[in-house]
Design goal:
The relative contact order is 0.14. The chain is globular. Helix 3 packs parallel to helix 4 and helix 7 packs parallel to helix 8. The protein is of the alpha/beta class and 370 residues long. It has 15 helices and 13 strands. The N terminus is likely disordered.
């Protein structure tokens, strides 16, 4: 393990949308919790800025009394993000380094902060305003995949894949016949396509997915998903939003996991969660998924519903134990934390040698990103 040269005072800044860790769905907040727990275990002095109902193994500074999405006020969150940035900026002198997970709000925070800021982007970056926001982006910007970084190659990215504690995931030598789909009831995630794939392959499908509070998300659930579910019949089961232990068991019991969404996954936590249980993945070749899923080993890629259904029977020939062993090694929370410790140490360094090392590292990262 590559450790930082000394114990650091680190602020982890989470969005106010979900608690840390989330009760059920919430990728960013899960990563924040995993990273925080590992940093505390390694002796760092960590403070988490997050919703007041969060449960972290260190100091918590509440940015909102309760997480916004479960409270039903997710759609009007901009003011809470701005408040979070202000709270962190006012306390910046208390830390050696600030690690922001606030997406676009991280850039102004980094520019106004009096101490180094690491900013991890968990969402898609190919949006109209991004070019202007990333103009003269400071050092410390983190992309969670090479594909995500490639959308803005001019930014001095450090690429750090997400990691989770995966070695305790359940494992079943003989899974059931059903596919599973885990994610959001959202067109970009391909939930309707998952139903079509299962029906073409002649297999049941179990769906564990959250429904957002924003009007268009509720409308999609009511007007598109529910009618499709009713039309599909008893072979498709909607389980709602599952807690982590239940979700892991669903993966382990499934024949395969479907990820047919067309949107460019910045990373795809669902894929590593599934693979950690030994369950292979059928997915569209988009975003970062080719960086995670080894075709013909961890699963298969298809360009459309028909192609993914064609590969369905081949999933049963894959070695589930080998799938599990490799993903646990590649995407562990410990490996992710190693990389962030290295970045923190470089950002905190103030001498000429430290700055030159940081510049050299960022150049290497840009070359690796292609």
């Amino acid at each position: 393990m590559s450790a930082a040269p000394r114990q650091l005072r680190i602020a982890q800044v989470a969005p106010p949308i979900e608690r840390v860790p989330p009760i059920a769905y919430g990728g960013t907040e899960r990563v924040v919790h995993e990273l925080t727990s590992e940093l505390v275990r390694r002796g760092h002095d960590v403070t988490v800025f997050a919703s007041g109902d969060s449960d972290v193994p260190c100091r918590l500074i509440p940015t909102v009394e309760k997480a916004l999405r479960p409270a039903g006020i997710e759609a009007d969150s901009g003011g809470w993000f701005a408040t979070t940035v202000n709270m962190v900026a006012e306390r910046a002198a208390d830390f050696d380094v600030i690690h922001s997970h606030l997406e676009w709000w991280s850039v102004p925070l980094a520019k106004m902060s009096t101490v180094p800021v690491v900013a991890t982007f968990h969402g898609r970056l190919d949006l109209p305003f991004a070019d202007k926001l990333f103009a003269d982006a400071p050092e410390g910007m983190v992309a969670i995949s090479r594909h995500q970084a490639s959308t803005h190659p001019e930014v001095p990215w450090t690429i750090i894949h997400n990691g989770l504690t995966l070695d305790r995931a359940p494992f079943a030598d003989k899974p059931g016949d059903a596919f599973c789909f885990v994610g959001r009831v959202d067109p970009e995630k391909g939930i309707i396509e998952a139903i079509e794939i299962a029906q073409r392959a002649g297999r049941p499908l179990r769906i564990a997915a959250k429904v957002g509070n924003i009007a268009k998300q509720r409308a999609y659930y009511e007007d598109v998903f529910k009618p499709a579910l009713q039309k599909a019949g008893r072979s498709i089961e909607y389980l709602g939003e599952l807690e982590p232990g239940e979700r892991d068991q669903l993966f382990a019991e499934s024949y395969g996991t479907l990820m047919p969404g067309a949107w460019p996954e910045p990373f795809g936590l669902v894929s590593i969660e599934s693979l950690a249980t030994g369950t292979p993945v059928l997915a569209r070749r988009v975003g970062a998924l080719p960086e995670i899923i080894r075709e013909g080993v961890d699963g298969f890629f298809g360009d459309d519903v028909a192609a993914m259904a064609f590969y369905a029977d081949r999933l049963g020939r894959l070695d589930r134990q080998a799938i599990r062993e490799r993903v646990v090694e590649r995407f562990s929370a410990a490996r992710m934390t190693d990389r962030y410790e290295e970045l923190y140490a470089r950002m905190v360094g103030t001498g000429p040698a430290a700055k030159e090392a940081l510049r050299a590292h960022l150049t290497d990262e840009r070359v690796a990103a292609g």
